[in-house]
Amino acid sequence: MKKLLWLVLILLIGFIGLIYFSVLGTDKEFETATIEDFKDIEDIDFRAHDSVTVAASSLYKINPLKNIMQGENYREAWATPVKVPVLFLDTLYGGMKIVKEGGGTQTHSLRLKDNEGFLYSLRSVNKDPSTHVPQFARSLGLENIVIDAISASHPYGAILAAALSEKANVLHTHPKVVFVPKQDFLGEKYNEKYGNRLFLLEDETEGEKNWTGYKNVAEILDTKNLQELKNEHPEKVSIDRNALVRARLFDMLIGDWDRHAKQWGWVIQEENNAFKAFPVAGDRDNAFFNLEGVIPGIISNENIEPEVRPFEKEIDYMPGLVYPNDVYFLTDTPEEIFTSEAKKLQELMTDKAIADAFKIWRREIYELDGKEIAEKIKSRRENLVAYAKEFHRIIAEKELLNKPLKGSEDAKISPALIKCFECKN
């Protein structure tokens, strides 16, 4: 018995030692992009360049131990230089105005408006998760476990998600990868935080201007404002349930587990004195989330972090993917809508459609991750009807909500409208 205890103790000490050696591979918590062929980024006149070759981050270094303990993830994609356009905000679309700075804790973002009133979001590709590092982790020197987890997100996943959305007939924004150098337009307030970084420039999922191509669009609202519109006109406002079910099944197809209520906009179509809302997904940071390695495998266990699901060929834990907003909007939705939308997606997402979507990526990025991601999408596609039935079953078994959706804590709505979108009392 004593020998067994000693063996367990030795194995435990060895495991802790491996963790420490693994996390010591990164000595920084955050960095901007890495530009190829330039030694001093501060001396570059970016006005003389229409594009630069830049790596999203060299922070997530590759070594055999780290790959085992913290996962290979998308480390090579983060470190691979790609050619991207240089963006100056004072000339973009006739000149931009900064509306406000985003409130995200990891993604640095600016909301922009052009001279025609269209809104855009400028969102950092690289993240800054330092505020999420618990103090105990810092005390033990283990902060890199949190920092390094960003490598599980694909730096160019958002543009691929948009290209696949187009094939799936799912409403989407149109993100572009751009390099924003330091510039006078940003001024002292924003230059240090936003200058010399890689960003996604995309349509904002709320605003008065219609960028969608849909007809008779009154405005684009966030979830909170949609609820308030419903509260004001309870009999005139509805959502397109088929569109929402298809969008959510598409999320599962591409492994995007982070789909809470604040991640959605709603395109409000006004016709015959009634309003119909169509969902549009924003923030695709966690599409194709490739969580590997011993440590992340423990953390992402369904009993520890049920929502954080790795992108594999099969969905490993459906309950973790069902959000309160799914119950809120889709309660009492017939199973037939779920299965019919799954079949439509299967018909639309052919092998050729998937292959065509991947053309949005630079060749060097596709060669790293394209084939593996495509195979996972195809595998999930084959099981989509079964996933749709399970998704419906879990929603049907859930109780109605007893607290506001995320982002709607101060929404001016009736108590009934807190429970579900079509609740009357």
Task: Walk me through this protein's architecture.
This protein has 425 residues and is an alpha+beta fold. It folds into two domains: 31-152 and 172-205, no CATH class; 212-425, Phosphatidylinositol 3-kinase Catalytic Subunit, Chain A, Domain 5 (Orthogonal Bundle), CATH 1.10.1070. 37% of the residues lie in helices and 15% in strands. The protein has 16 helices and twelve strands. The protein has helices at 2-23, 64-69, 75-79, 135-139, 144-148, 157-168, 187-194, 223-232, 241-253, 294-299, 324-330, 335-348, 351-357, 363-382, 384-397, 415-419; strands at residues 34-35, 51-55, 82-85, 97-101, 109-113, 119-124, 176-180, 197-203, 217-222, 237-239, 264-271, 274-281. It has a five-stranded antiparallel sheet, with no helix packed on it. A hairpin with a 7-residue loop joins strand 4 and strand 5. Helix 9 crosses helix 12 (335-348) and helix 12 (335-348) runs antiparallel to helix 15 (384-397). It is globular and about 65 Å long. Mean pLDDT is 87; it is low at 3-22.
Number of helices: 16
- List low-confidence stretches: 3-22
Helix content: 25-40%
Cα distance, first to last residue? 63 Å
Biggest beta sheet summary: 5 strands, antiparallel
Determine the strand fraction and express it as a percent band.
15-25%
CATH class category label of the largest domain: Mainly Alpha
